C-alpha cells in the first residue's frame, strides 16, 4: 500500500487530508503529523465564560466556492454566521480621530479623509488602463491614483491584511484577482463557535489519521508522497536533506510579527460607545497599533448582550519590536489605545494576548521570481508537495483552494 505523509496540521494540512481521503479512501495509507498538542495553526478560538477570543483570523469572505464546498461536506452550513450589517461601517484613525470610510457617492464627496485633489485622482485613476501590476503596491497606487492615496488610504488596509509595508509588497502577487477577474462582491462570515469550529470538525473526522506532538525536522518519513503544510521556515528544515537548494529558497521568506490583544468590557465602560467594525491606522501615524476590531459588533456571539469584545492588533513590518514586549506591556498599549479613542470609565473584565513572532508571510517584490524557483525545485524532488499560506495566497480561502488543488494533483 502506498503511503502519504502530511506534515503540519493547520487549515492547509487538514484540508489536504480531507481531499486525499475523499480521493483515495482506504486504498492509500495517509497520516498527518502535527508537532503541537492541537491542530489549527494560527486558527484557534479560545472560549472563556461568555466570550470568545480568536487567536488568528476572525472570519472569511464567502466568495470562494472551494471553502463553501468544504463547509458543506463537513456539515457546517447551519453553523455559519454572517457579519452584522452595522459592522459595514468602518473607520480610519487620522491624528488620533476616527474618520468614517465612505460607503457611497455622497459619503465620498463629503469625506474629510481625502483632499479635493485626491478625490479627482481617484476618479481619474479608476478610468486608467494598462498600469503594470508588476510593481510594489505603493508604486502601483501612486501611478494609478497618487502617492497621497497610497499612504493615507491604501496603506492602512494593507496593514490590516498583510501587516506589511506597501513599498515592499508586490502588487500582482498580493492581489492576483486584480489581474484576473476583479473582485467579486462578498459577505464576511464565520462560525457560531468561532473559526476554530472548522478545525475541530476536520480533526474529529480524521483524528485516527492524525499524530499529535510529533515533530519532524528532517528526513521526514519513508512515505511515498510527502505534503509539507508548515510555514516556510519550518518547511526549510524538513526538506533540507531532500533538496538543500529548495530549503535555502524557503529560508528566504520574510514574515511580519503580530501581537493580538483581546479585551472584554461591560457595555457601559466607554464614554463613547464603539460602533461599526472598528478602525485601521496608517503607518504614517507611527503607532504600534495596526487596527482595532469590535468583535462583538461584527459577530454578537462573541460576547453577552451587555458586553463588548474588542481585539487590538499590533506590530507588523513597521513595528517588529512588538514581539519582544511582555504580555503586560501589550495589554497596557491596547488599553491605552482604546481609552484614547473611546474613553474608558472602567477596566476590562477579561484580557487575552497571543503573540505571533512570524505571523504573516510577506509577498515582496521578488515574489514572482521566488515562486518560480520553488516550482522548479519541487519539480526536481519526486513525491514532494508544498502547501501553505506562503504560496499563492495568505487567506483562509486561499489555503483551502490551494490544498484542494494539491490533493487533486498528487500522483501515486
Describe the structure.
The chain has helices spanning 11-24, 65-73, 105-110, 116-127, 137-144, 147-161, 171-174, 196-206, 232-239, 244-250, 295-298, 327-342, 367-380, 396-409; strands at residues 3-7, 29-33, 45-48, 51-54, 60-61, 80-82, 90-94, 97-100, 188-191, 210-211, 225-228, 255-266, 278-281, 289-293, 307-315, 350-361, 384-386. With 412 residues, the chain is of the alpha/beta class. 34% of the residues lie in helices and 21% in strands. The strands form 4 sheets. It has a 7-stranded mixed beta sheet with strand order 8-7-13-14-15-12-16, with helices on both faces. The chain has a 5-stranded parallel beta sheet with strand order 10-2-1-11-17, covered by helices on one side. The chain has 3 domains: 3-41 and 197-253 and 363-409, FAD/NAD(P)-binding domain, CATH 3.50.50; 114-178, protoporphyrinogen ix oxidase, domain 3, CATH 1.10.3110.10; 255-361, Protoporphyrinogen oxidase, mitochondrial, domain 2 (Polyamine Oxidase, Chain A, domain 2). The protein is built from 14 helices and 17 strands. Helix 1 (11-24) runs parallel beside helix 14, helix 2 packs across helix 14 and helix 9 (232-239) packs antiparallel against helix 10. The model has no long low-confidence stretch (mean pLDDT 94). Strand 3 (45-48) and strand 4 (51-54) form a beta hairpin. It is globular and about 65 Å long.
